[in-house]
Amino acid sequence: MSTFRYLMRDTFRLLFRHWGMSLLTLFSISAVFFLLGASSLLSLNARHLLDNVEGQLTVQAYLKAGTDLAAARDKVQSFGNIVQITSVTPDEALERLKARLGNRAEVVTLLGDNPLPPTLEIRVERASHVPPLARRLVAMAEVDDVVYAGGLAEKLSRLSSFVGRLSMAILVIAIVAAVMVLFNTVRMAVYSRRDEIHVMLQVGATQTYVALPFVLQGMLLGMAGAALAALTLLKGYASAVDVLASTMPFLQFLRDGALLARLGVVLVGAGISLGWIASWLAVVRFIRAAMKPL
Amino acid sequence: MDIRISGVTKIFEGDIVALDGVYLSVGAGEFVYLVGTTGSGKTTLLRVISREVLPTKGQVLVGEFDLRRIRYNDLAYYRRDLGIVFQDFRLLPHLTVFENVAFILEAMGVPPKEVRDRSGFILERVGMWHRRFLRPPQLSGGEQQRVAIARAIVNAPAILLADEPTGNLDPRTSDEIVQLLTSINASGTTVIMATHNQYLVDAYRHRVVEVHRGRIIRDEPQGRYMADVDL
Q1: Minimal Cα distance from A196: which residue of B?
Q2: 3-state secondary structure A219-235
Q3: Which burial class, exposed, middle or buried, applies to B24 when counting CB atoms under 10 A from its CB (0-12, 13-18, 19+)?
Q4: What domains are there in chain A, each with its CATH number?
Q5: Model confidence over A34-80: pLDDT tens digits?
Q6: Does B104 touch chain A (CB under 8 A)?
């Protein structure tokens, strides 16, 4: 218990002895985590938007006249990645056409026999699933023609992949930047206390006892920086979404409170973890070198 | 704790031979002067015992510890049995006298009340209690060395290593420091003190080990006349 008290006291001494450096690190970490959180929000919103659009993507397979709709439906169902299949008989298709024509519905009587084919309307999970499904449908003997928004599906698929890669790149850059900032701060703190560390090691302090205040310092700075970033980001995001939604009502922004809270927790967790890793690397190298006999 | 050094050689980079086949045994509770000219190997020998220097050859046994094979984790526990005093004191300038002594106990996880009691007691013993709130730059050399000694003995080590503890002090203060070390030795602590102050060696009779060019050339038991020892 007393060891814990000494550790906490030394940790806060480290933080406040070089308070200017601590403050600089806090804001640097905060900026890095703000960037990280913003890129995550961009990625989440892009995913949300794509999910909405993809949810409305439908492939229409026109079957040959006389095809058994139920059998064809079962066959397509086995292809996988299918969210929903709606079977439309020629009669149902005709009714839909009439409904769409409204007052001019009588013109369909000019067609004589119902010329509309039986149809399967298929919804898939992702835009990227559309082209392979279309290829398999075209290859089916029962299928006469396949209609789908092929270009849109492929563009959405590419956009989704690009946003994913961009977020990953920002994530890697942000992690490296955060580790470097924390590493340097802790290394400076270690350097400023090098004499003390040497004396402590000479009189029998364990490596863990010497290292822990520095590690806690890194973890606290990481946590505080990430928490500041998360608060600023989520507060700013709520205001920004209100403004954007009123000016661009056709766009659906992410407003899932639980998901946003999870993002905040993940940012703070990442701050603590990166603080721990960076400070451990900084202090352990120094201690090992100090303990190495000549 | 006995110290047994057998055939220890230390060669630093550039083929500098600091110790050359040293054999030395020091029993628990002894007071030993290590004498010799500058560069003779006294400090290296002390640093071999504190395991800051690893011998190139030979064996060093201190109590149950074999210093060539000791693990990092055990090294911390071994060093708790050692007190080290340096010529340049090496006090931490931003801590007070009291804090300089107390932080050694804190590093060992001693409870706060015991830290206060033991640090206070030791500062009384070395005559520095009245200076406990001052910082090292506010003290004289002799006072700083007293604080350094207090720091070295506050954890009641079995062995006290003192490397030229009077090197920067005037004769009167040097006398006081050796008297203090002698009283510490009288309470059972083994003291090994490197010095080239012949007056002190003559005035306070203890075993004398002379080192020259990395070898022990003389090992005089306590009480022998020392005037012929060339320091």
Answers
A1: B92
A2: HHHHHHHHHHHHHHHHH
A3: buried
A4: 2-53+159-291 (no CATH), 58-148 (3.30.70.3040)
A5: 888 888 888 788 778 777 777 777 888 888 887 888 888 888 888 87
A6: yes
